[in-house]
Amino acid sequence: MLLLSAVFAGGVLLPRTVRAQARSAGDLEVVKLRENVYMIAGAGGNITVHIGAEGIVLVDTGNAMSSEKVIAVLNRLTPGKVRYIINTGADGDHVGGNGAIAKVGRTLFPGGGGGGGGVGEAVTNNGGAAILAHDNVNLRMSAPTGKQSAFPTTDWPTETFTGKGKSVYLNGDGIQAIHLPAAHSDADSLVFFRRADVISSGDVFDMNRFPVIDLENGGGIQGELDALNRLLDMTVAPVPLVWVDARTLIVPGHGRVADHADLTEYRDMVTIIRDRIQDMAKQGMTLDQIKKANPTQGYRKRWGAESGSWTTDMFVEAIYKTLPGKK
């Protein structure tokens, strides 16, 4: 659970304003990042809350079982309604609350919610908040005709984009959803709030563990490193005045708020492990031999796990299988 009592981030103090604003909300943790931007942790994946004149822009919605708690937190933060939801991927701990939270929101478009059930209702999400995501998120959440979908239709995106990304302007801020292909999966996006200087990374950056590379859904090690480098290019460190609070803040998929130093350390760690595995593979070592050689040495204790949904061995295997020539 994120508490920000771990005040150092990559050897650099996180802003005092961030550390001072962490507070409990039942099972959830609420962290004030900017005057109008918050992070909610503990509902599955981290949720970013952007508040302004138009209402709430939400990045991800957590898991389905936490929806009521998330809605209660939002109601305490502002009387404004959720107007726009942007998903960073298709995992259930990031999109499970889509339908419930969109339903208590309000469409940006006048005339929505009339109950006619036609094209207009689809555009306005039956009067609820819009849900934006890359088209691959929609493909993962839905299913072909006659097949059972992974999520109910109320959770599906109401607006999708293809290509490099989608930009909107809400709450006096330029907001960019940028697709990161073949990283954690083929459906990842980061969300950049330009005026607030806050980036929601989704699961390409996870402060709790080695990055999860979803082989079944198009993930790969090179795409993961490309995504981390893209994110790093957009992140500004607190230099030359390193003692000043000002810097880009990153809301990772899981774990505490991060900054440029954290991301650099994470990117370097993934690069070093990839290079070790690649060198071992070039020497003709098998996957089992590579696992036994422990290519994550020096990082395993901090980022690895011996059991659970994503283990160190699974991370090593995912890198090995997505190296050039291993498919």
Question: Structural class given helices, strands, pairing?
Answer: alpha/beta
- Binned strand content: 15-25%
Major sheet: 8 strands, mixed
Q: Give the CA-based shape.
A: globular
Q: Which percent range fits the helix content?
A: 25-40%
How many strands appear in the DSSP assignment? 15
Strand adjacency order, main sheet? 3-4-5-6-7-8-9-10
CA(first)-CA(last) distance: 37 Å
Low-confidence regions: 1-13, 113-119
Mean pLDDT: 89
H/E series: EEHEEEEEHEHHHEHEEEEEHEHHHH
Structure annotation, total helices: 11
- Give the C-alpha Rg: 20 Å
Describe this structure in words.
- The protein has helices spanning 16-19, 67-77, 92-95, 98-103, 119-123, 135-141, 221-233, 260-282, 287-293, 300-303, 312-321; strands spanning 8-9, 12-13, 23-25, 28-34, 37-41, 47-52, 55-59, 82-86, 130-134, 159-161, 165-170, 173-180, 188-193, 198-202, 249-252.
- Strand 13 and strand 14 form a beta hairpin.
- Mean pLDDT is 89; it is low at 1-13 and 113-119.
- Helix 7 runs antiparallel to helix 8.
- The strands form 3 sheets. An 8-stranded mixed β-sheet has the order 3-4-5-6-7-8-9-10.
- The chain is of the alpha/beta class.
- 29% of the residues lie in helices and 22% in strands.
- It is globular, with a radius of gyration of 20 Å.
- It is built from 11 helices and 15 strands.
Could you give a short description of this structure?
This protein is an alpha/beta fold and 327 residues long. The chain is built from 11 helices and 15 strands.
